Amino acid sequence: MTALLLVVLTLVAVGGTVVALTGDPRRQAVTLSVYGLLLTVLFFVLQAPDVALSQLAVGSAVVPLMVLLSLRVVAGRRR
């Protein structure tokens, strides 16, 4: 394995841990977006640009926005 791949794998492992240990759902959505970017870099390093583009669109943008939208809807229903 190359040094770049080891660094990216370490960052992905740390990022996943941070997402799992974040308690506040809003902060977790932000850390999930950063984790999606880390996965995008990992897929790009592994020479899978099609998967990286999909991850960039879905994991870094769509899923965190859906989480924030659902939190907003749930908070609106509680009021």
Automatic annotation (TrEMBL):
Its main location: membrane. Keywords: Cell membrane, Membrane, Transmembrane, Transmembrane helix. It is found in: Cell membrane. The chain crosses the membrane at residues 30-49, 56-75. The keyword Metal-binding does not apply. InterPro entries: MrpA_C/MbhD. It is a multi-pass membrane protein. It comes from the Bacteria. Residues 11-72 form the MrpA C-terminal/MbhD domain. It holds the Pfam family MbhD. This is DUF4040 domain-containing protein. It comes from Amycolatopsis acididurans.
